[in-house]
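Supplementary Methods S3. Input chains for the assembly prediction are listed below.
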Amino acid sequence: MPELPEVETIRLDLDREIVGRRIDSVSIDGARTVRRHAPEKVGRTLEGRTVTGTRRIGKYLLIDLSSRAGDVVTFVAHLRMSGQLLWTTDFSIPLVKHTHARIRFDGIEELRFVDPRTFGELWVTTPDVPELDHLGPDALKDLTDWKQLRDRFANKRSPLKTVLLNQEVVAGIGNIYADEILWVARLRGDKAANKTSANAFKRIVAATHEVMAAAVDARGSSLRDQQYVDLYGVAGGAQRSHNVHDQMDEPCPRNDGGTIKRLVIGGRSAYYCPKCQR
DNA sequence: CGATCTACCTGATGGC
DNA sequence: TGCCATCAGGTAGATC
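Predicted structure tokens for the full assembly:
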């Protein structure tokens, strides 16, 4: 569920709560939560360490930890479709269904990982996080030059939206914000990516930064099901600014007489205005 | 190499 | 009320 702005919102909250704090204990429940290595390794690795900082790469959340016997480690979380990270001020507060991991800090407070669909995952690794080497430039921080995007589009004949969703091309864009970026850039997502013009690449780069920055400012998008909430369980506000995503049959906000349509691109819902997106 | 399916899961929703 | 089909913010892996 969460895309870059939602992960960044959670990271900003976490940074405030856990940097400088010590992890007492970790419990992992559910065979799917940790699957890159033995689940017990998480507790063994984290317990007793102090959080030194947080990072985000695309939709991955990273928590850096203090060294022990000379080695430093990083804890990685990806929420996939239905994962949540929730801050609990007292570990005795009852667990909600589908709570798969608990990380306790300084005796009482607890970070909980809740994930009904169990697609999300946690793991520990080295600070260079080699598992994420395949990711393209981060859509918010590192996508600055349109030529960078053009080069990454080379040889890609899939639809434009499919390529924007490819995390190896650019990291952090998901289904909601791909629709929004394409609307701002006035481009249709079902056109072949390799036909994108230089001017269109410039508009995509500008639109990506604009859409992502505004969504972070609004603390992410919470749709009807409220599956995304921040670290404190509070919904975001970016959905109120969606121009096309999930806006079927609504008038285009450009007031150009267009009506928002839905189609399927790469097996996923895509919303667009047939009037202003070409 | 690139493109396209499919699997991985639970839960909400809407039609009959 | 069921019961069934469809859909959901994502990604990795198989296959062509």
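The helical segments of chain A are 4-18, 40-46, 146-153, 160-164, 175-184, 198-217. The two ends of chain A are 28 Å apart (CA to CA).
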